Amino acid sequence: MSDDADNEYKRAHRELHDAMNALREIQGNPPVPYRESNTSLIHEPPFCSFCGKGANSVRKLIAGPNAFICDECVALAAEIMADD
Ligand SMILES: [Zn+2]
Predict the structure, then answer these.
(1) Comparing C-alpha atoms, which of 11, 30, 10, 9 is closest to residue 20?
(2) What does the mean pLDDT of the chain come to?
(3) Residue 62 belongs to what H/E stretch?
(4) What pLDDT, in 10s, does the model give residues 38-60?
(5) Ligand 1 center to residue 44 CA distance, Å?
(6) Which residues, 6 or more positions from 3, have their beta carbon under 8 angstroms from its beta carbon?
(7) Four-CA torsion 63, 47, 20, 78, nearest 10 degrees
């Protein structure tokens, strides 16, 4: 994998992020701060945005538009929601 391809990927990722924020603005939502891609072409697989566990350490990793959540965090969130 060349650095050029990686830089191109990061640029595209950034553009996608800006486009998403433009859309959020139209919908009246606050913009999301930019974070450099965790899923760069030359880096490791994605990890849970909540607990930080890698895709290999959890049973399931669910992908959202700008984040990932693992099955353990989903179960924890469901527990918290059930408390109400
Ligand atoms: Zn998690």
Answers:
(1) 30
(2) 83
(3) strand 61-63
(4) 554 444 568 999 999 998 899 99
(5) 16
(6) none
(7) 50
Alpha-carbon distance of 72 to 14, in angstroms, equals 29
Distance 70 CA to ligand 1 centre (A): 4
For the chain, domain boundaries: 1-37, 44-84
- What is the pTM for the complete model shown? 0.47
Mean pLDDT by 10 residues, the chain (84 residues): 77 82 83 68 72 92 90 95 87
Q: Answer whether 56's CB lies under 8 Å from 45's CB.
A: yes
CA 64 – ligand 1 centroid, Å:
13
